[in-house]
């Protein structure tokens, strides 16, 4: 009787813990489901791939075009002559004026590009 | 050579490489279809339709996949949502013939293996639907509780509670059987 109980306890102790056992059994009882045309069906139903590189290049081209166009419009309407006359009358050197103008337009264009990129 | 999920996703999402995506479909189709069959009460046709729709939806959403979760977790979440909304649309009608056919198709060679699978399946049927899903995701698929909660759209505590209750129930149902098998 005691031997029988001891054997039974030994057997119970030798069982893997329940979680491990359950995980193993659940995985063992899972059959592999053959593809059987499933993948082809999925692939046939996917939308046509877009060439992202071309799309991105077009998008960048449009961005730069928009920035250049808007800069051109601003430059066309900018009263540069009047501003130079005004500044000359205030005794500022022409070179400093050009430098300030270039710096300003570079910053504005750069900021515009960054904003568009985002 | 098997490429990692990350590389395949990158190729499919950024370069529109459908061959890369087909590798992902092949990699996960069996697991996903099996899981959805459990979720659809054995209705293979519905499960396969849902799996197909999930793969298509995942492909369309790939550019938005940020890689915060594993691809499999994300895919399961999409599939789970699809099945749940399908279940909400129409009351579930179990195709018992389909279930029986599926069970008879599973060609297990060894009698003991068959008996074990049957007993395990019977024990699983004793669980509530949420408990069964939680056990399937956490113990069968190996998702963490957090991942299962995100797939099932449930609070973490609820998922843990489902897993614990299901485990206790399965243990009470299956432990005598386990001991019997060991003692012969």
Automatic annotation (TrEMBL), chain A:
<protein>
    <submittedName>
        <fullName>Uncharacterized protein</fullName>
    </submittedName>
</protein>
<keyword id="KW-1133">Transmembrane helix</keyword>
<keyword id="KW-0472">Membrane</keyword>
<keyword id="KW-0812">Transmembrane</keyword>
<feature type="transmembrane region" description="Helical">
    <location>
        <begin position="61"/>
        <end position="80"/>
    </location>
</feature>
<feature type="transmembrane region" description="Helical">
    <location>
        <begin position="92"/>
        <end position="116"/>
    </location>
</feature>
TrEMBL record, chain B:
<keyword id="KW-0731">Sigma factor</keyword>
<comment type="similarity">
    <text>Belongs to the sigma-70 factor family. ECF subfamily.</text>
</comment>
<dbReference type="Pfam" id="PF08281">
    <property type="entry name" value="Sigma70_r4_2"/>
</dbReference>
<dbReference type="InterPro" id="IPR007627">
    <property type="entry name" value="RNA_pol_sigma70_r2"/>
</dbReference>
<feature type="domain" description="RNA polymerase sigma factor 70 region 4 type 2">
    <location>
        <begin position="119"/>
        <end position="170"/>
    </location>
</feature>
<protein>
    <submittedName>
        <fullName>RNA polymerase sigma factor RpoE</fullName>
    </submittedName>
</protein>
<dbReference type="InterPro" id="IPR013324">
    <property type="entry name" value="RNA_pol_sigma_r3/r4-like"/>
</dbReference>
<dbReference type="Pfam" id="PF04542">
    <property type="entry name" value="Sigma70_r2"/>
</dbReference>
<dbReference type="InterPro" id="IPR013325">
    <property type="entry name" value="RNA_pol_sigma_r2"/>
</dbReference>
<dbReference type="InterPro" id="IPR039425">
    <property type="entry name" value="RNA_pol_sigma-70-like"/>
</dbReference>
<dbReference type="InterPro" id="IPR036388">
    <property type="entry name" value="WH-like_DNA-bd_sf"/>
</dbReference>
<feature type="domain" description="RNA polymerase sigma-70 region 2">
    <location>
        <begin position="24"/>
        <end position="91"/>
    </location>
</feature>
<keyword id="KW-0804">Transcription</keyword>
<dbReference type="InterPro" id="IPR013249">
    <property type="entry name" value="RNA_pol_sigma70_r4_t2"/>
</dbReference>
<keyword id="KW-0805">Transcription regulation</keyword>
<dbReference type="InterPro" id="IPR014284">
    <property type="entry name" value="RNA_pol_sigma-70_dom"/>
</dbReference>
């Amino acid at each position: 009787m005691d031997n029988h109980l001891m054997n039974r306890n030994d057997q119970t102790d030798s069982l893997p813990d329940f979680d491990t056992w359950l995980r193993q059994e659940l995985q063992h009882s899972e059959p592999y489901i053959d593809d059987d045309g499933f993948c082809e069906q999925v692939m046939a139903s996917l939308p046509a791939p877009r060439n992202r590189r071309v799309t991105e290049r077009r998008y960048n081209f449009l961005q730069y075009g928009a920035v250049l166009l808007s800069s051109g419009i601003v430059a066309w309407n900018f009263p540069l002559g009047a501003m130079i006359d005004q500044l000359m009358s205030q005794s500022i050197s022409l070179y400093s004026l050009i430098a300030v103008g270039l710096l300003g337009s570079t910053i504005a264009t750069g900021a515009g590009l960054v904003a568009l990129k985002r | 050579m098997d490429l990692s999920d990350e590389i395949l996703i990158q190729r499919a999402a950024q370069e529109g490489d459908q061959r890369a995506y087909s590798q992902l479909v092949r990699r996960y189709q069996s697991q996903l279809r099996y899981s959805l069959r459990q979720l659809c009460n054995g209705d293979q046709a519905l499960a396969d339709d849902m799996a197909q729709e999930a793969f298509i939806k995942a492909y369309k959403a790939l550019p938005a996949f940020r890689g915060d979760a594993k691809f499999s977790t994300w895919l399961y979440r999409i599939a789970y949502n699809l099945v749940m909304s399908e279940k909400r649309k129409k009351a579930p009608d179990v195709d018992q013939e389909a279930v029986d056919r599926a069970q008879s198709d599973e060609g297990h060679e060894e009698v003991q293996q068959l008996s074990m699978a049957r007993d395990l399946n019977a024990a699983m049927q004793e669980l509530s639907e949420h408990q069964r899903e939680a056990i399937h995701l956490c113990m069968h698929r190996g998702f963490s509780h957090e991942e299962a909660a995100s797939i099932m759209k449930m609070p973490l505590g609820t998922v843990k509670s489902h897993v614990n209750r299901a485990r206790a129930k399965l243990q009470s149902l299956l432990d005598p059987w386990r001991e019997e098998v060991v003692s012969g």
